[in-house]
Amino acid sequence: MKDLAKISIISMSIILVAIAGCTTQKSAEERTVEIHNEVLTVDTHIDWPIQQFLNPDFNPSIRNTLGKWDSGQWDLVRMQEGGLDAVFMSIFTIQRERTDEGHTKAKEIALQQIESTQKMIADNPDIAEIALTPEDAYRLEKAGKRAIFMGMENGYPLAQDLSNIKLFFDLGIRYITLTHSKNNDLGDSSTDKQQEWGGLSPFGEEVVQEMNLLGMMVDISHVHDETFWDVIKLTKAPVIASHSSARAIRNVPRNMSDEMLKAIKENGGVVQVCFLDNFIKKMEQSPERKAALEQLKEERAAWVRGELSQVEIEKFREKYWQIEQQYPKNRPTLAEAIDHLDHMVEVMGIEHVGIGSDFDGGGGLVGFDDVSQMPNITQELLARGYTKEEIRQLWGGNVMRVFNEVIQVATELQKLEKAQK
Ligand SMILES: [Zn+2]
User: How far is the CA of 384 from the centre of ligand 1 (A)?
Assistant: First the structure.
């Protein structure tokens, strides 16, 4: 009898421990959902407009399922599902010839992407709206709607004409990433073969000043280190890096050194961790994958140069997708990206870090394949001991604070300019 009582006490304790275990696990999940829904979540870099430009058949109003070459990583349904409140759609143009013809074409492409973004909103008035200010984002979040901001990646469509900044501002563009992967008329890129300007060009200096005056955020992702330092010296408003990670962890020119991170902290700006595999960790790929990609090298180069016809582009995509299926890429995990975030917080403080996935532009990791998986970030942050308030700052509070300061600086500058006239 005694033994039986003992056994039942033991089994009762096991049951109680098991229940306690379940409750803790459940509450962690519940806490993730609760916090993720409560804070304003902002992703400062998604390249949907260029995907839409390349594949006009893509329907952003339905749920596209991952696993096809044209499934994309963003649509409105998955944005809702992933509890993402606001996004900056990147109006992106690849750097081509800096001739009159090249500039005209780039401006045309940018205008088309803006139009397709506006059309996407017009088709879904109950789900999303174009946002122009931080106030808009918070208002739309309360209304349960998605806030769609626009940023411009690459100053190439400015076409050496300062008045185009105002034109794009009036169309809703709220940041410009000064360069992309090659030098342009604004300055040197972090990934071109050699420097051309030694940092910002004289036109680039005027662009930064004009952006300060209009209340547009200056985005220093992609720029050469010297361009970065020129911007930091010149700008009157805090800057953003819309999608860049930490060079101390993964030493590539697209990531930010600790000195740069500290300078952005000083400047009051924010760096948005980029979730592109090669910026997070160097991964070895299978010889089969390497060999298959090597065979596509020429075609890829021709595609980048814009030399392929639509039929050839589709063929190229099909071959590329086959390789992805047959020899999938080894990728880092979401947790390894959050290591970058931890490092940035350590160097800069919690007020200067945020999220810029680069989905549809190369972003994506194990456990972070599309916009529906945004809560995985919140889960990882919670598991690492970040508080609700810290998560609120990281997810959107910081970048919206910077955006507000940029608007305030512009208001002051405009007043000053008026007074001088
Ligand atoms: Zn980019």
Answer: 28
